[in-house]
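Your task:
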Amino acid sequence: MTAANGGGGFLLIFLISTILIGFPLLLAEFALGRSAGVSAIKTFGKLGKNNKYNFIGWIGAFALFILLSFYSVIGGWILVYLGIEFGKLFQLGGTGDYAQLFTSIISNPAIALGAQAAFILLNIFIVSRGVQKGIERASKVMMPLLFIVFVFIISRSLSLPNAMEGVLYFLKPDFSKLTSAGLLYALGQSFFALSLGVTVMLTYASYLDKKTNLVQSGISIVAMNISISIMAGLAIFQARSPFNIQSEGGPSLLFIVLPQLFDKMPFGTIFYVRSLFATVTSSVVMLEINVGNITNQDNSKRAK
């Protein structure tokens, strides 16, 4: 998407959208969530002093459930790829034809559903241990490792010939290629990166005390998301020129194009580890919020 819409031009619109639109909306969700102090489903009913407004929270919760379903499918595919790559390390086979591999995975219900189930069980295991022992402990391990892996990939990509061509393509705006659809995609990416409109930030804010500075918290989240987005772009575009790999979007980018790229680099397996960490750190939060919505709504016990 970035490559098709002028590289740096798309990045610039994403940054502007994130700061001028995403950040204020993030603060609004923070204010609503902290003021209500309840689950996202009950937030609007409490603030509006009428339970009929709870449907707004249900819309966001449903959107989050759909998003979690999407993540579980992607996470399952990543587990399959990771297993194959580890098999290569131990000389247990594998294939370099990633287009054929990806097609074989998505066309085989047993593999696709089994991998998705395994990913969901991994998330359930983490969330079932609670916020402190589960999600917090997992995040303390995976988030720093995610940044370390990003730095490693970027450093390795910088050593490739003509790597700076990819960097310039990523950072230099070409507004002639930026379409109206690209503007909407950049805005949508801002919402997606900040988890806006899907009850995530409402729920997060409901746990904050009155002394917490919402602006500082918002700035930290926006800065972290922008940093991760730029690091991901650098990691991909630096290696794009040396290996002459054409850019694509959607699942084919993650499961066909990028595997070809990192398969040609030493320690390419680390790319799949990064992908798994990035997916799990997001999906466990989504699952926790879904669990929180259910338990807060009917007062059932968490274990159930």
Summary: The radius of gyration is 20 Å. The chain has one domain: 3-298.
